[in-house]
Specification:
single chain; mainly alpha; about 200 residues; about 55% helix
Length: about 200
């Protein structure tokens, strides 16, 4: 649309100079025929495999250089890695842009940018564990803590042993809940493994 608008603007100048519409149309037609012959000769390369990193880098660098001049070498590598990470393995290559997220870290610079496969949480952990390898992960959309009962109850404790036993019974119940969740997770994991083996 921008290109067509520019051509119309140039037409206005030519009409004011005194050229006839038929002359302008003939000039544009000749220019189009010349471009059809010249454009194929101007191709310096094309992408034959959309999953080849080197070929993708060639087409990403010029685009990023027009927006982030000086950082195109770094950014093009990151963009290509992100595209390859989300590109479909089968059929026509397609990139799902919804699967790519940008997380900004305060105090960081563009040279510290990197592509990570997985999920980045922009907050600290609740517990003391900061690092784990091959850790099974479950994501819950609800609270895991023990819910309060609707009916109010009174527990009469006569000594410290009663209090300790009461706490142990609550801890035991919570352990049972967590173990049942872990068993279901293991069962689902084994089902997914069997399905992937079948595929």
């Amino acid at each position: 649309m921008s290109f067509a608008g520019e051509l119309i603007t140039k037409c206005e100048d030519l009409l004011r100079m005194g050229l006839h519409c038929s002359e302008i149309i003939a000039g544009y037609t000749n220019a189009y025929e010349a471009l059809k012959r010249m454009l194929p000769e101007l191709i310096i390369g094309n992408v034959t495999d959309c999953r080849d990193k080197e070929q993708l880098l060639k087409i990403c660098k010029p685009v990023l250089a027009s927006k982030q001049f000086g950082s195109e070498d770094l950014l093009s590598g990151l963009v290509v890695d992100a595209c390859l990470g989300t590109m479909s393995d089968k059929g026509q290559p397609s990139v799902n842009t919804d699967s790519v997220r940008v997380a900004k870290i305060m105090g960081g610079g563009i040279r510290q940018s990197t592509v990570m496969a997985g999920m980045v949480c922009m907050r600290g952990t609740e517990g003391t564990i900061r690092h784990a390898e091959n850790a099974p992960i479950s994501v819950f959309a609800c609270g895991v803590e023990a819910s309060a009962t609707e009916a109010k109850g009174t527990v009469l404790m006569k000594n410290a042993d009663d209090l300790m036993n009461y706490n142990k019974s609550e801890e035991k119940k919570m352990d049972e809940i967590i173990k049942s969740v872990a068993e279901v997770s293991e069962q689902k994991k084994s089902e997914l493994t069997e399905r992937s083996d079948d595929l």
